[in-house]
Amino acid sequence: MADEMVLETQQWLNNNYGNVPGFEKVKEDGKTGWPTIYALIRALQHELGITELSDNFGTDTSNRFDSKIVPKLEIGYKSNVVRLIQYAFWCKGISPVESGGEFTEYTLKAIKELQSDAGFPNGDGKFTSKWAKALFDMSAFVLVSGGDKTVRTMQQWLNVNYNIYFGILPYDGIYQRATNTALIYALQSEEGLPPESEATEGQPFANGNYGNTTTQLTPTLQVGDSGGFVEILQYGLYVNGFYKKGPFNGNFTDKLATEISKFASFMEYDSRNALAGIADITTFKGLLISSGDTNRTAIGADTSTQLTPAQVKTLVDNGVKYVGRYLTGSVGSGSDERNKYLTSEEIDNILGSGLSIFPIYQDNYPEVKYFNKEQGTSDAIAAAKAAIKLGVPYGTIIYFAVDVDVEDGDIAGTVIPYFEGVFGTLTGSGFRVGVYGTRNVCQRVIDQKTAVYAFVSDMSTGYSGNLGFAMPQDWAFDQFFEYTVGSGEGAVGIDQVGVSQVDLGMQYVYKNTSKYPDWFFQKLAAIGIIWPMLSEVIKATIELEQDAYFDAEPFHIYTELSEKLSIGEGDNETSFNISKGEISNSFYEQLKDFGDALSLSGDDAKTELYHKLGEIVEGGVFQITPAPFKEKEKGNVGLEVKIDFEGEKEGKTGEVELTIDVYMNKKTIDDSGDDDEKDAYDKLEKITNAKDSEVKSKSAQNAFYAQFFSGFVEETSSKVGAAVLAAIALALLIKFGPIVIGLIFV
C-alpha cells in the first residue's frame, strides 16, 4: 500500500533534484525502498556541496554534515537539509509531524524517539552525522517480525557502549552481519584497541576483524570474573543457541560455565578449558567467527586430490579418521586441470587404512544461477550413478555443494528448489542427501527436510551466510581451515574438518552377493530415509542380509527379510495396494474420515509420507496388523508392517517382503514421565488389545475391536472393522508427530 508521505517525498525529490548531475530520479509509488533512500542521500550530498554524488553515506558526507549542518540545527532553522531529514523520518516510519523544512519541536521529538529506540532513553537530541547515517538507511529501528527481543536488547547495549567504533547499529532484533561485527568491535574495545580515527601512526586499532592482535589480547575467563568481556561472552552464547535465559549482566557464574561447556561439546572442541566451562580463545573465536580457532585439532579432512597410499598415510599419521572426497569432476583449467573424482583404488587405500569416506558431489561452477530443481534432479542422477559404480553402500549420505555465498533473499528461489530436485531423485536411488554450504544455506535446506545433515563451509568467514548465523544443530562436518599437511610424496593439500560423528560415512564397499536384486536394497534404504528411526536397523538388514534388531527407546524394532509370501486379508489385517507408485485413494479417504471423526489433524503434510512410500514401492502391497506376541516384548504394545516389493531389472522380476515390528516399551515410557508417549501407548494398547496379546483368537480380538469402535463401524463386517482399526490407529498416532508416524509404518 502506498504511503502518502513517502509519495510526497519522492515527488519533491524528483522536482527539486531531477536535473542535478548524478541524481537519479526515483519511481513515484509511495513505497519506501533503497532507491528512495539513495535519492535522499544524493540530495543531501548536493546540499552539502558534494559534486560527485553516490549512494554511500561516507566520510566526506559525514564530515561536511557535522561541520556545516550540526551547528545550525536549532529550533527555527529552515533549509532543504531539514526537509530531507524530515522526509527521511517519514520513510523510516517515525513521524516528524511536519515536512516543510523548518526545525521544530516536532523534529526534535522525532530525533529523541530515534535515539531512545537505539538504546539511549535519555537522548540529548543532538543530531550528528552518526545519527544522520543511521536515519538515511533502510535498516529497521523497531523490533521486526521474526526479530528477537534479547537480540534487540543486545543491539541497544552495543549502541550505547561501543557506537564510537561502528556508528549506530540497526536494532531490529535480527542477528546479522553488522551485529556480529559489532560484537567483535566490542571485544576489541574491551581489549583496549582504539577506533581507527583515534589511533596514532603504527598503533593497532579496532577493525571488526578477529585478527592476530585481537587473538593475542583475548582473555581467559572463569567463574567469578565480571565486566564487559563477560557480557560479550553471554550475548555470544545466546546468538549461538546457548545461555537462552540469561541473565546478561557481565557476571561469570556457574550457570555460564555450564553453557560454555555445552557449546564446546556441541562444536566438538578439544579445548580442556572450554569443556571445563572456562572461556578461552577457543570459546571466544568459536562464538564470534564461523571458522573458530583454526589452531584446534580435528579428525576430519576433505581434499580434491586423488590420494596416493603415501598421502593416505600422511592423513592417518595426523589423526584424520574421516576424509571427504568428490564423486565426479575435475578442478583447475587448461594446463592446471586435474581430476578430482574418487577411484576404486583410492577407496581401497583409504578404507584399508581405517579411515571413513564422506562422499561429496560438486561438478558445477559456483554461481547462484546454477541452482534450480531441474539441475538438482540431473546432479542427483549423476551422483547416484557414480556412487553405485564405486560401491558406496545404500543409505550413505552424499553432500551436495553450494560453494557460493547465496544471499538470504535468493535461497528460496535457487537452493531450495535445487535440493527438492536432489532429494526427490536421490532418495529413490537409496542414498541420503547432505548439504554443503554456509550456515544459513545448510539450515534453510535442512528446515525443508530435503537434507539430513550439514557439511558447513565455516572456512568462508566473510560469507553473508556465515556472519550472524548459528551453527546448524544437524551438522556433521565443519570445514574451518585450509593448509598442506605432510612432506615429499606424502604432502597433500586439505581442508581441516571438525566431525560431530553423527554421520559415520562410507566404511566398506558394497557388493551384492545376496539372492536379492539391487533394486530391492535401493527401495529398502529409501524407506530408512523417509523414516529416520528405521535407518540404522535397515542398514544392518542390508549389510547382514538377515533379521535385525534395533533399540531406540522407547521403541524396540525388529526386521525380517523373506522371499515373497502370500499376503492375505484376514480379519485382523489391513492391506493397501500400490500401483505405479500411487497408494489407493480409499486409504486416504479412510484416513481423512476417521481423522475428522476423532477431531484430529488432517494436515496434508502428514499424508506426504504415504505418497513417498508409494513412490518407492512402485508396485506391491503394504499391510498393518497388531504386532505378534514375542516373549521378550511381553507387556509391550506394537504394530507390524509388511511391505511387499515387486520389481523388475534387466528383464528379471522378483518379489521380496520386508516385515517390521515396532513395540513401545511400557517401562521406559512409565519411567520417562512423558505424557504424550504415555497417551499414545494407552490408545494403542486399547486399539490393539496388546495387553492380552497372548490370546490369539481372532474372533475374540474382533469382538473387542467391534465393542471399542461402536458407533464407527458395523459389528457384522469384520473386514470393514479391520480397515477402521488401521485408519483410526493411524489417525490417533499421527497426532503425536514424526516419531509416532514412524511407529505406525515402520
Q: What tags apply to this protein structure?
A:
alpha/beta, disordered C terminus, Muramoyl-pentapeptide Carboxypeptidase, domain 1, eight-stranded mixed beta barrel, 746 residues, TIM Barrel, seven-stranded antiparallel β-sheet, 4 domains, transmembrane helix
Would you kindly provide a written description of the structure presented here, covering whatever features stand out?
- InterPro entries: GH (IPR017853), PGBD-like_sf (IPR036365), Rv2525c-like_Glyco_Hydro-like (IPR015020).
- Keywords: Membrane, Transmembrane, Transmembrane helix.
- It holds the Pfam family Rv2525c_GlyHyd-like.
- This is Rv2525c-like glycoside hydrolase-like domain-containing protein.
- The protein is α/β, with parallel strands linked by helices and about 750 residues long.
- The chain has 4 domains: about 140 residues, no CATH class; about 70 residues, PGBD-like superfamily/PGBD (Muramoyl-pentapeptide Carboxypeptidase, domain 1); about 200 residues, Alpha-Beta Barrel (TIM Barrel), CATH 3.20.20; about 230 residues, no CATH class.
- The chain has 28 helices and 17 strands.
- The strands form 3 sheets. It has an 8-stranded mixed β-barrel with strand order 1-2-5-6-7-8-9-10, surrounded by 5 helices.
- Helix 2 packs antiparallel against helix 4, helix 7 packs across helix 8 and helix 27 runs antiparallel to helix 28.
- The longest helix is centred in the first third of the chain and has 18 residues.
- The radius of gyration is 32 Å and the shape is elongated.
- It starts with a helix and ends with a helix.
- The relative contact order is 0.05.
- The C terminus is likely disordered.
